[in-house]
Amino acid sequence: MMNVFNAQDCATIISRINQLKSTTPAQWGKMNVAQMLAHCNVTYEMVFEDKHPKPNPIMKWVLKTMVKKKVLTEVPYPKNSPTAPAFMIKGDKDFQNEKTRLIDFINKTQQLGESYFDGKESHSFGKLNKVEWNCMFAKHLDHHLSQFGA
Predict the structure, then answer these.
(1) Domain limits, the chain
(2) 2: which of 61, 114, 131, 143 is 20 to 30 A away, CA to CA?
(3) At what angle do helices 130-147 and 95-117 cross, to 10 degrees?
(4) Which of 128, 42, 148, 36 lies closest to 85 in space, CA to CA?
(5) What pLDDT digit, counting tens, does each position of 91-127 carry?
(6) Using CA atoms, how far apart are residues 105 and 90, in angstroms rounded to an integer?
């Protein structure tokens, strides 16, 4: 698995993103490429921006006990996996804007480094260690970049 805290691995991820065009077709799923980039940005918005409401205590318990172990393992996501409501992207998105935002978030994450994330509270899963943060970021990016052949 790639390491989002490693500069060389981030360069590889960004290179994959730069392979995408606004017309790149999905190999599976319902999102177009701009929506996919916006979808990937949600993970980072939950870390760096205060625009998504936090789950209520019952939902947080469900996420921590049932979803966390699926998200924070190296087992790849199956194609057409269900997603949380905050990650559902509807309507048109600006490809270049979403691409730039995602690359900026990836660079910011790498520059802040694993020590910034080690023990940091997740929006949905409670405190995560640096390995769990990396798994969450890298696995999600790999899944969706693969979805578009990058």
Answers:
(1) 7-147
(2) 61
(3) 160
(4) 42
(5) 999 999 999 999 999 999 999 999 999 999 998 999 9
(6) 21
